[in-house]
Specification:
The protein has 263 residues and is α+β, with helices and mostly antiparallel strands. Helix content is 53%, strand content 11%. It has a 6-stranded mixed beta sheet. Helix 3 links the parallel strand 2 and strand 3. The chain is globular and about 55 Å long.
């Protein structure tokens, strides 16, 4: 982690001296669930003022150079201004990177209330003031609304996609990483909706063992083993994937029911 972030800062500082004034790690590392060789590094980089088109062009070069010097882990996230941190993030349009590529449009998923919460509550300071001095905007209602919407717009359609794939080929073998994503991802949002905080994938699996119906316990144990790197699964059968899809639907339904007016 330290080596990867050191290389990142060396490259960015050489391309754009003084541009990145603050650097904070969020994501799995901040939530104590980072796995060497498996996890990428999620960051929030901070500039003095909102990045210009010229700044974004320079960052494109920086990330291209970084990909040559350090292909993995990816160092990904938005480039925001100090003043952005004290405002709701959903309306911001700032440069951002994903899988090592710099983008400059309005589609940065990480500009959301969950990221802001992780930064404020768990963020790791690499450069700049400590996270407790940033005044990061945190709103539990906005965070819950975000996860309710994301479950409906992304996770529910994903579960249907998984079911269709299983129906189309009952002998299909799925990648363990895809199984882990499906079995643990929606539970992270379920936890936020009901408890307000944010947990890692490992934390979501442990939470799921506590609150989800017992029929999902086996799938959760399998997914947690994949997450921990201790699983013997080299491929995942359609039976497990169907249960993972059912678990997504359980998360979506219970959160939607709880969020319904009058509930």
């Amino acid at each position: 982690m330290a080596t990867a972030l050191g290389t990142y800062l060396e490259v960015v500082d050489s391309c754009a001296p003084g541009l990145v004034e603050g650097l904070y790690v969020v994501g799995s590392f901040a939530l104590d669930d980072w796995r060497l060789g498996h996890s990428d590094i999620d960051i929030v980089a901070v500039t003095a003022e909102p990045a210009t088109d010229e700044d974004a062009a320079t960052l494109v070069t920086a990330h291209a150079l970084l990909a040559e010097h350090q292909p993995r882990p990816f160092v990904d996230g938005p480039y925001v201004a100090w003043g952005d941190l004290i405002t709701p993030p959903m309306s911001l349009h700032r440069p951002w990177s994903l899988e090592g590529r710099l983008h400059h449009d309005g589609d940065c998923f990480e500009l959301n209330p969950v990221t802001w919460y992780v930064l404020a509550a768990h963020g790791v300071t690499v450069r700049g003031p400590s996270v407790d001095r940033l005044g990061t905007y945190v709103d539990v209602d906005a965070r819950v609304r975000f996860v309710v919407d994301n479950l409906a717009s992304y996770w529910s359609p994903l579960s249907e996609q998984v079911r269709r794939a299983c129906d189309a080929d009952p002998t299909r073998a799925f990648e363990p990483d895809s199984f882990e994503w499906c079995a643990l991802g929606a539970l992270r949002l379920h936890h936020t909706a009901f408890r307000g905080g944010v947990v890692s994938k490992r934390g979501a699996g442990e939470y799921g063992l506590e609150v989800a119906p017992a029929r999902f316990a086996g799938v959760l144990h399998d997914a947690l083993a994949v997450r921990a790197g201790t699983s013997t699964l080299t491929a995942v059968d359609t039976g497990r994937m169907r249960l993972a899809a059912d678990l997504i639907q359980w998360c979506t339904r219970t959160v939607a029911d709880a969020a319904a007016p009058g509930v």
